[in-house]
Amino acid sequence: MGAGLSSGEWVWQNPLPQGNTLQDFSFIDTNNGFAVGASGTILRTTNGGNNWNILASGTNDDLYSVAFTDPNTGTAVGNFGAILRTTDAGNHWTIQRDGMTDVLFGVSFTDANNGTAVGSDGLILRTTDGGANWTNQASGTTSFFNDVSFTDTDNGTAVGDNGTILRTTNGGTNWVSQTSDTINNLNGVSFTDVNTGTIVGSNSTILRTTDGGSHWFSQTSPIPSDLHDVSFTDSNTGTAIGPVGLILRTTDGGNNWISQTSGSLQILYGVSFVDANNGIIVGFAGEILTTTDGGSNWTTQTRGTTQTLYGVTFTDLNTGTAVGASGTILRTTDGGNTWLGQTSGTFNQLNEVVFTDASAGTAVGEGGIILRTTDGGNGWNSQISGTTNLLFGVSFANANTGAAVGAEGTILKTTNGGNNWDTQISGTTNFLFGVSFSDANTGTAVGAGGTILRTTNGGTSWDTQTSGTTVPLHGVTFQSANIGTAVGNSGTILKTTDGGSHWMAQNSATTDHLWDVSFSDANNGTAVGEGGTIVRTTDGGSNWVGEVSGTFNILYDVSFTDANTGTVVGDIGTVLRRTASGPTPTPTPTATPSATPRVTPRPRPTPRPRPIPPG
Which region, left, alpha or beta, applies to residue 173 given φ > 0 means left and ψ of -120 to 50 means alpha? Predict the structure, then answer.
């Protein structure tokens, strides 16, 4: 699988084919299928899941469900009431509905024209003309609906929170409540004919009916766990999925459910089988699993790390290194087309990395760890830092002279490539998150509480500068002894042209927290942060303009080698690459918190962020 365009000028390099969470999948035949997910992600496969193309959806709204009736005709629904429609196999999508306060979690079509979407606060929408018009139907409840399944134009079942089950036999003109005998949230439903259906939900809930829901009886899951989705291809053969790679299979209508080996530890959200043998599952961090033998064997189609990456540096267009959680170190020598893991010798989180040339580099992180390489990362050696404090930032002015900063105002200095690290007096106990040296003597550190420290004597003394803010500052870069930029919380960007004697606030075009900034020259700079935020300037920061990253994953670090070529890294192994100027940047959409996902079985595994103390 090759990298694909995420949006605009940014390309996914890790994970592949992309790293946004996928919520649902629709399998049309053994070759053709579509997946949807976070940030308007839509993927298409035409060979049973072996290869995937990223499609332009025209929206950044999270998409939760998708239904195709043939290889060309499909509908996706999601956040802010979004409804998207395609009639040409996803090459073009028409937004039929958007900008609402509601959320749509499920959709089912029985032919090109007749479909039903369900969602928040008991919302049920119906179309009989392929979505040209959507009509509200009375559900009689305010419970959230999580899924819906129709077997023909008239007969359908919607399921939702607190054990809610509604049934229609007249295309939704009337919806009738059915007795589930549970208050658990019901997350997925699959009917194979008018009478035979299965529902799955929280707390191992599996419900089965053979009379159209007049009676629902409970079935036993062999593993206690929430279940997120279910797909049956006939009355006997079905698959249910859940967190931590859970896959359950039945071949006798659910009398017996057997756990299958998925080879995945990710949360699995959507499953679709086209026949008893061929199925695809999608989930957290873009996870994709395929089977051609009914799940006896599952193949992981995604590749690359999902460890959060906190630091990245490039010394030229092709040569770069990224570091992150659990001692992760990745290396590329081909501009990120290939990222290979290196042995760090630690499981400590690595927060930042810097190289002065293709061979010599230093990484710092948790527990005061400092790692050094002089051969491009083929070997990484631990150095004695003299501290157990967290280290967040590192900067080298040349191969030998560098500084690291961290918790409790920690500043360390080396003049011999890290063979010795000496503690310097910072004059603060505030956490220091970033540091930049423009030469062996001149450096600036930034941190919590709007802290900015400056040295002009190699760190023998550090002087406090007035930042004009109290928000945490996470990143700083200097293009010369005098010209520098710092970024931080709430979209803060500060600029100095006199070595920090004066810091001036700039309009960042965002209120999202910014984690780092990189300038390739005095004019061209890029800052990244929460909600997938990327803002760029071509005039030294007088104007910052948002670019569409194609993800809402947190972006922690950025490295540009020239005005147009750069790499950002972040949450869940995210690596994005920009290689051309492309079209005029568009304002970054406000990263509105996504509505409650279709299921929240447990909190999504959040990586350990760089700690931010109060202030």
Answer: alpha
Q: Which residues on neighbouring strands pair with residue 267, listed in sequence order?
A: none
Torsion over CA: 252, 257, 263, 266 (sign): positive
Residue 236, Cβ density class (10 Å: 0-12 exposed, 13-18 middle, ≥19 buried): middle
pLDDT digits (tens, 9 = 90+) for 540-549: 999 999 999 9
pLDDT band, very low/low/confident/very high, at 606 (cuts 50, 70, 90): very low
Q: Is 72 left (phi over 0), alpha (psi -120 to 50) or beta?
A: alpha
Structure tokens at 316: 């030229």
pLDDT tens digit sequence for 104-129: 999 999 999 999 999 999 999 999 99
What is the pLDDT confidence band of residue 210, given thresholds at 50, 70 and 90? very high
Phi-psi region of 511 (alpha: psi -120 to 50; beta: other; left: phi over 0): alpha
CA 352 vs. chain centroid, Å, equals 20
CA distance 272 to 19: 20
Q: The tokens of 360 are what?
A: 């010599």
CB 398 within 8 A of CB 437: no
- The rounded distance, in Å, linking the Cα atoms of 510 and 519 is 18
In contact, 391 and 384? CB cutoff 8 Å: no
DSSP, residue by residue, 516-542: EEEESSSS-EEEEEGGG-EEEESSTTS
Q: Tokens 């679709």 appear where?
A: 272
